[in-house]
Amino acid sequence: MEITNAEIQTDIAGFQERIQTAENKLTELPRGYRPYREYKQLQKTKHELELEIEHCKRLIGYAEEALKWEN
Hints:
The chain is mostly helical and about 70 residues long. It is about 85% helix and about 0% strand. It has one domain (about 5-70).
């Protein structure tokens, strides 16, 4: 199965959208003092969103590297 440059570009755009969505959700998280249970849940959510951003950035790097090899 061969993947075209256009498909790779589409994937990159999708990853960028996922990053933007995760960043938006991060900024929407409540700030300030919270009860312990709520604080722990917020920390978990924050960590998951940060992992999603890192993961998508890594995938974009792989995709951009594939584009370089294709040319």
